[in-house]
Amino acid sequence: MSKKKGSTVFLENKPRILETASIAGQKESEGPLGCYFDCVITDGRFNEKSWEKAESKMQRQAVGILLEKTKKANSDIDFIFGGDLLNQCVGTSFGLLDYSIPFFGLYGACSTFCEGLCLSAMAVDGGFAHNVIAVTSSHFCSSERQFRFPLEYGGQRTPSAQWTVTASGAAMVCADEGNFAITAITPGKIVDKGIKDANNMGAAMAPAAVDTLIKHFTDRQIDENYYDLVITGDLGVVGSSIVSEQLENAGLVLGNRYTDCGKEIFDIEKQDVHAGGSGCGCCASVFSGYIFKKMQEGNLNKVLVCATGALMSTTSTFQGDSIPGVAHAVAVERI
Questions:
Q1: I need a labelling partner for 121 at 20 to 30 A (CA). Which of 89, 156, 288, 334 fits?
Q2: How many CB atoms lie within 10 A of CB 64?
């Protein structure tokens, strides 16, 4: 039976990630991880009538690729945990409509992929499901339209601003198939340091990542050398530097074992993304397209993925509220 210590759940039945699938946009494919994505869309609308419909199609196709890779039928899947950044998660609900699989819609902002993995792992570990899919997506254009300015406005971006990744990632969590187990998860609490600048999301989310990571290492009683890689979700250059500094101040020195999906997905020097990538699709596509393939190749054996989310909305921003953050950590290890 699984047990909990502090904030961390130890999954003794070791639910496994059988396979992953990833889709990325043109800009993302031109970054350093471009060769790792299963599918690249060169048209921002994905041959659909709107960016929002394109995002739905990305999720639909990501799940389709995953089912094809695993040779699973729709009827083999017990649940799907999915979400996106759009109001009421319409990108996900319309994208997954045709699969007719029991669906849990999630909103953890950019932390949604790891939130989905946490819930998938607990569902499988508890014996409530045999095969579960976690999937998320984001789209630069649909996110800009909802959270910032219409693209036609041409507003100038601040140096701390991040580029919402156009991508989708999906992972299948199974009871007894695959060589990579989710051994422990640390769901995060909401952390709010009073930051109100929507163009500095990395700084707003970093404290939540620090809180979750310290709890994870403390609860597991492991040192900084345990994992081959610790990667946060979408803090970019600004947020990840804050995390490194605050972890070091707390005595947890990860060094080059730590990086961030928002830093890795783009070439910060050559691509005009300012502080790096963000969005639900950032962590989802980097893990599903790059990290998991590196694990399959034998280059990584123990990875801690900690996706971060800014729990804001246009309404809260207009009302002058601060930007709370949350971060969920998932340990994936070769068995």
A1: 89
A2: 16
